[in-house]
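Exercise (ungraded).
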Amino acid sequence: MTQKQYSDPKPPAALIELQQWMQNAVRAPHLSPQSQKNSDAYITSSNRQNASQRLNIYLNDYWPRCLDSLAEDFELLKAYWGEKSFDRWMEAYLLAYPSKNFTLFYLGKNLLTFLEAHYSLADKVLVLELARYDWALCLAYMQPESPRFDPQVLSEAQKQNVASLPLQLHPSVTVLAMGHGIRQWKNSSKKPFQKKKTYAIVYRLNGVVYDEPLEMGLFEVLNLFLQPTSLEACLERLENKLGPKHLVKAEEKMERWFKTAVEKGWFVRPSL
Amino acid sequence: MKKVLNMPYLGFGVGLRTEHYDDFLHGSPKVDWLEIISENFMLGAQRPQYYLDAFKERYPIIPHGVSLSIGSSDPLNWDYLHTLKKLVKSVKAPWFSDHLCWTGVHGHNLHNLMPLPYTAEVASFIAQKIRIVQDFMEIPFIFENVSSYVEFQQSELSEWQFISAILQEANCGLLLDINNVFVSGFNHHFDPQEYFKEIPLEHVVQCHIAGHTHKGDYILDTHDHDIIDDVWKLYEGLIPTLGDVSILLERDDDIPPINELEEELDKARNIYAKVKQHDTKAV
């Protein structure tokens, strides 16, 4: 059946102008002198409040709502920066990337891009790692469910050739390589950061979000499954990358890693 | 009263909030139906979906949105509507609702229920959009009157005239939020009784009752307190004129334990029963 075609009615010109003006006024972090001046042109005063005071009620709703939502989603970043610095950066972020989604859950989706482009202080690497970790936790909660790879439901022929089956990471999974002990910091009442190479995985299983440390080798392997690939192809690529000596070690561990990954639902079979 | 829309009477419900998921999953709170924030269940995230699947077998569920933005000068967002339609179908809702407001223009979302200028031209524009939405969704749409904090220079109608014009042209239902009428009445110096007298009540399918925060110069619709006596009085006065409408208690912040909401809902039930009984005797 073909989709019925609808044509939107033409909006009144005065409505377009009013909404454009009000959106700009509300999205300014503070009521600008220009907005205050223009308020009277659009908004009436009451006997208790003038036009700009009435408009200000909407600013006082927009900013705390957005900042609270970002604070919920970027807990580590806020804990590291402190509230004042966090709010200042988030204000700048919201001005650059205002929400274009029907839900606040995606408000922070461009934060990494923003920080990469605009944050230039000495701790930039750490800040990006914290933001990436926070966002991985958000994604693990939000990403839609899809059927996990289950070797038990394979046909006999497929069971004989598991290594050749294409697999991919579940949408809720993010693997992270970091230059700081972010996970340890998160779990240890925010002691000073340890500068060391660490790896972690963030994922969801049965509705619960987990973050766990990873061995470097397993990180390398899982990283290959960001795109559909098979265990066979994965080993071939690892051989090229690590060289035969390290590959032997990786192969030894592969069976254990694969079992863990399947048990924890990290793989899906890519849709054809 | 002959209703414009022949909708089922659902009784007394509450807005479903995460704080009460386990109460509904493991217990049987005295609640007849649930209203969900549509957008929270439109992401396909597993946890909300898990609970929704469990609840939809046990309660009538009505999706209540905050981002349809029916009053925006932007075109309708078809991605949003397609996702919403899937949700509405999945819970077998007899109707769905959103607010008479706009939430952004040029694709942006202010995540707030922004007020509209009350003109005949804007009313007609919105009514045409509602007709399209209802036709696409294939079930009735009802809109909620919002609390507002500004009035616009270009407004030429009262809020009730504006709402009446939309209801008549769009032939849709009204979700009458009694608290919002009280809040806007204080903020804009009108008498809620006059509002109720002028609104075509035969369009009312559902009512919201809720608490608010008095800020001195204005009232903010915060849904974080118990319902105040003045709003209960408005509710009591309205019931005899409304016929059977589904009642929904809203709470969005400082959310109390479910038993406290049950008590407040019981109060709404008792007032309803008392007024109805009195009404029957009078006949």
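Further reading is listed at the end of the chapter. For now, observe: The radius of gyration of chain A is 25 Å. Chain A touches chain B through 52 residues (CB under 8 Å).
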